[in-house]
Amino acid sequence: MRTRCGYVALLGRPNAGKSTLLNQAVGTKVSIVTPKAQTTRFRVTGIVMRGQSQIILVDTPGLFAPRRRLDRAMVASAWESVAGADLACMLVDAFRANPDDLAEPLEALANTGRRHWLILNKIDLLLREKLLPLADMLGRMGGFSEVFMVSALKRDGIDSLLDAMGAAMPEGPHLYPPDDLTDQTDRMLAAELVREQIFLQTREEIPYGASVETETFKDLKDGSARIEVTIYVARAAHKMIILGEGGSRVKSIGSRARNELERLLERRVHLFIHVKDRPGWDEESARLRALGLDG
């Protein structure tokens, strides 16, 4: 049997469930997930084997109206992923779907000329008599060749979706070893898990004004890892909020991120976090490149 391999770009509005779908497909966390919108800042890759097919799923930043330079780079990154993909999938939150709001990205996707599928997510929250007309309307609006209905959180419909993706990949050699799950490095994962906790533990405005970078990642003789990360915030006042009274919040951020890292890396982790205020970091080309964005 010939092998197949290809890229699938996952697109959608913020909170459509792209990262949850990616993690379910891979079988472990490779992309952070929070209840807040615009969590994903750069392309995250998950690698899935379905028989002789290797599917390289690319989780992209949500499609929204950009304001800052960082925002523009995030949205551009999402559309660049489509240009290099063999298949583009538009995820839609079926429960909150607004056809008027989706008209622009659906048209833009159709105009790319790439083969594209529609994935209606969170179908467990919507009555069937509302779901089918919605699927028909969006399917026609976007000119989709296939429409799938899933609940990524509950994994309903995920296996059928992955089987279809595997069959749709072009023939060719696999690009990654069969046991690889992502192209993310451990350094990237450490920074992202700290940023995930910032989203989960701070007020609305803080996460969007913060960036996390791994400064050092050292393998120690006892098999553990020593990791130092720096949290950059856009305002001095945000630094105090991240730190918390007596450093309580940053300790909680570090503790929960460390526990998650130890689970994923399967070894002991010594995590050290520094917090620095750096006004305008989200407008700096060098900082955006460090995030994996061109800026």
UniProtKB/TrEMBL annotation:
Region annotation G4: where it falls in the sequence: 121-124
Subcellular location(s) per record: Cytoplasm; Cell membrane
Gene3D superfamilies on file: 3.30.300.20, P-loop containing nucleotide triphosphate hydrolases (3.40.50.300)
Region of interest: G1: 12-19
Keyword annotations of the record: Cell membrane, Cytoplasm, GTP-binding, Membrane, Nucleotide-binding, Ribosome biogenesis, RNA-binding, rRNA-binding
Name of one Pfam family that matches: KH_2
Primary role: An essential GTPase that binds both GDP and GTP, with rapid nucleotide exchange. Plays a role in 16S rRNA processing and 30S ribosomal subunit biogenesis and possibly also in cell cycle regulation and energy metabolism.
The name this protein goes by in its record: GTPase Era
Organism (species): Acidiphilium iwatense
